[in-house]
Design goal:
Radius of gyration: 25 Å
Largest sheet: 5 strands, mixed
Helix content: 10-25%
Structural class: alpha/beta
């Protein structure tokens, strides 16, 4: 009959098992609420130094009401803890940066005269929480959301250096939101909203040279031009 192949087919042989795919379990951990941060409009940093007291690192926001919501949530997360480092981490990325880094050719980044402040999760603590929840470390895929801000240094690094010297012994500092009453006026004390009831206590802050950041460091994202991060 036509259409029937009477040729004998060779035996298929023993089937080999497919290679087992690497198993991954995603664990999301972040202190950043995207909607609240987008609404708050983080604008910059402000330092407050008072003799006899720990320093204050102020996050300057355009929308103070939204920023209060951020810090209220952080206060809830750190309730019962002396410091908020259990879930939050603050990193400074300071010069020198890699020679090819985009900031050196960016007018908006003062041609590299300044630094980044990076705020995100305490990665080590996040990993510990994931493992405690039952995820094997070799199967863990940690995902997170962070935020960073560039700060120009037009007149040297005095404020940054002072803050570093006051926190190097890990005696702590306060992190708090600061509002702007009128963005059309200079950033002076009389034009700021400062309320210490929204402050949280932090113990650690890390300072890293931009040209020493390792490949697996979450902070490395700042070294890429944001136009290429989309």
């Amino acid at each position: 009959m036509r259409g029937i192949n009477k040729a004998q087919k060779p035996p298929l042989g023993k089937l080999r098992p497919l290679p087992e795919k690497e198993r991954r379990t995603m664990f999301f951990s972040s202190p950043i609420d995207l909607n609240k941060w987008n609404s708050a409009g983080w604008k910059g940093m402000l330092y407050l130094f008072y003799p006899g007291y720990v320093p204050v690192l102020g996050l300057l926001y355009r929308n103070y009401s939204a920023s209060k919501e951020i810090f209220n949530e952080w206060k809830k997360l750190s309730k019962g803890e002396e410091f908020a480092d259990e879930f939050l981490k603050v990193d400074y990325l300071v010069p020198p940066f890699p020679n090819e880094c985009w900031v050196y050719t960016s007018k908006e980044r003062n041609y590299g005269k300044g630094y980044f402040v990076f705020i995100g999760p305490n990665v080590d603590k996040s990993i510990n929480r994931a493992i405690t929840s039952g995820i094997k470390q070799e199967e863990l895929l940690l995902t997170t959301v962070s935020r960073y801000q560039w700060m120009d240094e037009m007149n040297g690094s005095y404020n940054r250096d002072m803050f570093k010297s006051l926190t190097v012994n890990k005696t702590g500092y306060y992190l708090m939101p600061i509002g702007i009453k009128n963005e059309n006026k200079p950033i002076k004390e009389e034009n700021l909203i400062i309320d210490f009831s929204y402050a949280i206590k932090m113990k650690n802050v890390t300072f890293k040279n931009g040209d020493q950041i390792k490949g697996n460091d979450f902070c490395k994202i700042v070294l890429r031009n944001p136009e290429n991060n989309a």
